[in-house]
Amino acid sequence: MEQKNISKWALASIGIAFLGVLVLILSGYGYQWGWWGLGTAFTWLLPGSGVLALIGFSLAIVFGFLRWKKPEVEGAKWAMLGVVLSLAVIGTIGYWFNEAQQYPPIHDITTDIENPPTFQAIVPLRAEAPNDTTYGDQEKADTQREAYPDLQTLYLDVEYAGAFERALKAAKQMPWEKIVTADESTGRIEAVDKLAWFGFKDDVVIRVDTAEGGGKSKIDVRSVSRIGRGDIGVNAHRIRQYLEEVKRQ
């Protein structure tokens, strides 16, 4: 049985495209595992994965022209897989770049801008974090109002104890890394969330308090990134998810 030779263009396409995928994935996990710094990941590895993907895609195009002239050339499946992997890398980078343009460069979001919930138990865990727990100036508050007008204090028609129970139960339902403290006497719940790819850690504080009017309570939430000027909307999304979970309790 005659063995057919697969085009080197096709093999090179999938090989380089696969390398692009590997570099893209490791750019984040490598930082998380301490293999390199954030600057290396964002300045070299992420762009590098995109360059590799473009090369892999280009090689597949070259193979396509070659096969158009010589239909007997083997390797179409490998070249197509190279195209798919290349587009996956390019699409992922493009998606996150586009997302970064959609959100303001702030990383501290709360439902109570005038009197944000404060951290206590989590403060020591953020000792080496570039971002502190100071909410910020009026300009940042105005930016949040404009970007996330829907984030408001949640009012419940239940007594304080019932509200705290619902708040804590909802927090336990969230896919957060851990709940650091839950103190009913002060109405404070603090938790840490860890993002999968780069392993960035964000901190959450929930404040439960009584509200004006008999038998009513209110819940405020604040979510803050430990690193980075912006958060690509992650903190606001986390708060929305949590408040929706409270409503379901």
UniProtKB/TrEMBL annotation:
Name listed for the protein in its UniProt record: DUF1499 domain-containing protein
Top-level taxon in the UniProt lineage: Bacteria
Keyword Membrane carried by entry: yes
One Pfam family recorded for the sequence: DUF1499
Protein keywords: Membrane, Transmembrane, Transmembrane helix
Membrane-traversing stretches: 9-29, 41-66, 78-97
InterPro entries registered for this protein in UniProt: DUF1499
